[in-house]
Specification:
Length: 238
């Protein structure tokens, strides 16, 4: 129902914008970015062939490999260890005001001539939090009791998630600020879309690979099934 309602709202509002919103002819610049789809793609290829852009794209595509497992798998492993999904969902609620405030605070530090400095400084802390998340998963069965998990465990999880959000948004805002700063104003929309797309892809493909590797890299022990290692899906089923 939630998805259906907002899907309907999006469809209605975007349709209204398409039919009712008109361009202000007086504000259109003399030089247009492109004249059509073909020109747009030709422009994109000419941008991405630039040595500096190509190097930056390679760096941003691989920069998030180090925390892909922690970001993608921690929640699933906590559920596997017995933490109720509804409790994890509730823990996301305190993060909402933090997610609203963080970009406002971080933008003060990314508005200068070197916005990527914030990106660099946040990276080692985010990598260390990956180890801390691994500790949370390891710790979960140690503190679990018949009634569930103690309050102090949830407090540590919330604090860990809050610190993670700070590092995540520091990197996110910094990379957006950098993309905005280096984009040629004459072709700003095309330039920024390309860099932001590469940046988003750099965060998505490592998470997908991490999820795909979870089963092959997980050490399993079989109880009551002699001669089976549980390494394959068939053995686990047995």
């Amino acid at each position: 129902d939630f998805l259906f309602f907002w899907g309907a709202v999006f469809l209605v509002t975007t349709t209204l914008v398409a039919f009712l919103k008109k361009e202000n002819q007086e504000l259109i610049p003399a030089k247009e970015e492109t004249k059509g789809i073909t020109d747009t793609y030709r422009l994109l290829f000419s941008i991405i062939k630039m040595p500096a852009v190509l190097t930056f794209c390679l760096l941003i595509l691989t920069s998030k490999v180090g925390f892909s497992a922690a970001d993608a798998v921690t929640g699933l492993k906590l559920v596997e260890e017995g933490v109720p999904k509804e409790h994890l969902a509730l823990l996301a609620v305190p993060m909402v005001p933090l997610q609203i405030i963080l970009p406002l605070v971080i933008s003060k530090y990314t508005a200068g001539p070197q916005p990527l400095n914030t990106f660099y400084k946040a990276m080692p802390y985010r990598l260390l939090l990956g180890l801390e998340f691994a500790f949370l998963v390891w710790w979960a069965p140690k503190v679990k009791h018949e009634g569930g998990f103690p309050v102090y465990y949830y407090a540590v999880v919330v604090l860990s998630y809050a610190l993670h959000q700070i590092t995540l948004y520091s990197m996110y805002v910094a990379i957006m600020a950098f993309n905005a700063k280096v984009s040629d104003p004459l072709i700003g929309g095309t330039y920024m879309t390309l860099l932001n797309t590469v940046s988003n892809l750099g965060g998505n493909w490592p998470s997908t690979v991490a999820l795909w590797l979870v089963d092959p890299l997980t050490v399993k022990e079989c109880a009551g099934a002699q001669g089976h290692t549980c390494a394959t899906a068939a053995d686990a089923e047995v």
